[in-house]
């Protein structure tokens, strides 16, 4: 979606991890959310991955999972080498991870998933704080704000996962009017 969003986790670190893109249940709040505008490019790119995927309304705005071993994986994930079959057009939420868009009632926030090994290694070093400044600046861009306002479904609730998440900042201009 945003080709200029610099990732927080270096690719080589990401490819060695066994956490992301794997889920205990077939339907979970950790599944990546996908916007209507991202669905088309993801479906087109999936022709070269695990067969064509049509993300339907039944997907409820999430990338579907498939059964694998004794858990579930993202439809686009290749567990053999930890790669994403649509990496070049992956959803915004995947680009942003381990940072999360969170909605609690009418408050929109950005948080970080503390169980990410890279977060555990880097938090709270100077590199951490530099990236947070970068991320705050990224979210002040007009094109990013318009995208977020157009896609409020990207903000999720993480019931039961609160102990794994550190809230970082609130998106003041996205608050619902009272």
Write the layout of secondary structure elements.
Elements lengths: L10 H6 L5 E2 L12 H10 L19 E4 L2 E4 L2 E2 L4 E2 L7 H5 L2 E6 L2 E7 L3 H6 L3 H15 L1 H9 L14 E6 L8
Antiparallel strand pairs: 1-3, 2-3, 4-5, 6-7, 7-8
- Please mark out the parts with pLDDT under 50 across 5 or more consecutive residues, or reply none: none
- Overall radius of gyration: 16 Å
Write down the domain tally: 2
Lateral strand order in the biggest sheet:
1-3-2
Largest sheet: 3 strands, antiparallel
Count all strands and give the number: 8
Question: Number of helix segments?
Answer: 6
Binned, the helix content reads 25-40%
From the N-terminal CA to the C-terminal CA, the straight-line distance is 31 Å
Question: Class by helix and strand content?
Answer: alpha+beta
What general outline do the C-alpha atoms trace? globular
Mean pLDDT: 87
Which strand-content bin applies to the residues? 15-25%
The H/E string reads HEHEEEEHEEHHHE
Can you offer a commentary on this structure?
Strand 6 and strand 7 form a beta hairpin. This protein has helices at 11-16, 36-45, 92-96, 117-122, 126-140, 142-150, and strands at 22-23, 65-68, 71-74, 77-78, 83-84, 99-104, 107-113, 165-170. The chain has 178 residues and is α+β, with helices and mostly antiparallel strands. It starts with 10 loop residues before the first helix and ends in an 8-residue tail after the last strand. The strands form three sheets. Strands 1-3-2 form a three-stranded antiparallel beta sheet, with no helix packed on it. It has a three-stranded antiparallel beta sheet with strand order 6-7-8, with no helix packed on it. The chain has two domains: 11-91, no CATH class; 96-174, no CATH class.
